[in-house]
## 1
Amino acid sequence: MTEAALRLPRVTVATIVVRGNELLFVEEESPQGLVLNQPAGHLEPGESLLDAAARETLEESAWSVRLTHLVGIYQWRAPGGRDYVRVGFVAEPLSHDPVRELDDGIRRALWLTPAQMRAERDRLRSPMVERLVDDWLGGSRFPLAMARTVTA
């Protein structure tokens, strides 16, 4: 990876999907082994942040969702030096497609309480996973209109 490529932050989205007292997570393959993450992924060219969050949630978990709020925006430098900017949303589940194939590298989707997530802290994909949950639990909720797509 070139030095210039390391300087460019990767823009990602993540979604907390809430069902009762449980949150939707995915178990995914990574260089560190199997890790837990919210349904999350990279913003694609020309895609809005809202569309990216709904798409990634469907592709990684087979759940269609309705985004309700923006929770926060997070910046993190991974141990290898790559910077990430994560835009975190909260959503309610609408429907599940149990026969839908999940994205490559996603082993399964699972529902965990925040306490169960904390018990698996060593397996979280990054510190942004827990921070997003903590901020949501702390009441961080912003209107979706804060994540605007500006066109000419």
Note: The beta strands are 10-19, 22-30, 33-37, 40-42, 63-77, 83-96, 106-112.
## 2
Amino acid sequence: MPDRYVPTPKDKFTFGLWTVGNTGRDPFGLPTRPSLSPAQIVDLLGEVGGVCAVNFHDNDLIPIDATEAEASQIKSDFTKALKRTKLRVAMATTNLFSDPAFRDGAFTSNDAEVRAYALQKTMRAMDLGAEFGAQVYVFWGGREGIETDGAKDPVEAEGRFRQAIDFLCAYSIDRGYDYKFALEAKPNEPRAHIFFPTTGHYLAFISTLKHGEMVGVNPEVAHEHMAGLNFSHAVAQALGAGKLFHIDLNDQEFGRFDQDFRFGSANPKAAFFLVKLLEDAKYQGFKHFDAHAYRTSDRADVIEFARGCMRTYLILKEKARKWSEDATIKALLKQINRAGKDLDALSAKYSRAHAETLLAMRFDRNALAERPLPYERLDQRTMEILMGV
């Protein structure tokens, strides 16, 4: 029987150079895997199979202190690897968090020279991404925050960030890059308090931009789970606003440090409802696995990690179809969702007549409170479908 869960480039699954290229280093331990060149990482993804594209930070591809000759050679090798594997570049971003120059932020730094350098570095990184055909440009402000509230005026910091994004939008337009900008939220780590900690914060911020039409969000499973939030709700809000420009898939235990586990490995039910949401909404964007293999993994296990991310998504996609077609689920949803076209029409659009009609209606509160809502049975049936029963 053929394997139904083999990905193809049409699934639009992507990985970053920093994901499968992760060396296993953490704050308490040295690397456990050898460092790979960008070309070697692309070749590894080619060995994984079914991957659509690769993504990069500017310094994932070109080291920050590389000479022009070194940069040229790296880009040449990277281009050849892309051709060998038939991969492309989907998304690019800037590393504005690793270098000590950004220890107090980039766009929100208190130092005007740091802010100017951050703009220069981002423009050059946008040039690099455009050179390789990237369609989406992500912004994660890993150092845009504080440890003590006395350090920065939050209103001024937000204004600086707005000014930077407005400037870079204009740069993209002026250069004809046609980028879609995607802002990525995170509540904490590496700073104690990061500005714009959730996807909802960024959705509100976008409405204040000069070119808000070209700016959306890049929500990440782990980041919303770190804040104890329901990731599917953040994605639904982004979909409703027409702002889901990119998405980072991984997994995360609630209340832990940023773990970036293999997609679906920590909370498969949450992953199921996320996949169902994306598939029901017919999301057409790239699905990026911003995760990395366990520190214990060797090269072969890293390949299994990457295959596992994609395979889990495809399995959950099939489970979502079975859930929607299941007779028990259909019956329960019909019982739970009480249609009322006339009532819904009254609230769909305000008019004085509709308001007067609603004001004059009599509702039996006791009867409303007694209607059955078999959510336990619904959830149990969901679990049975997920477990193959």
Note: The first strand starts at residue 13 and ends at 16.
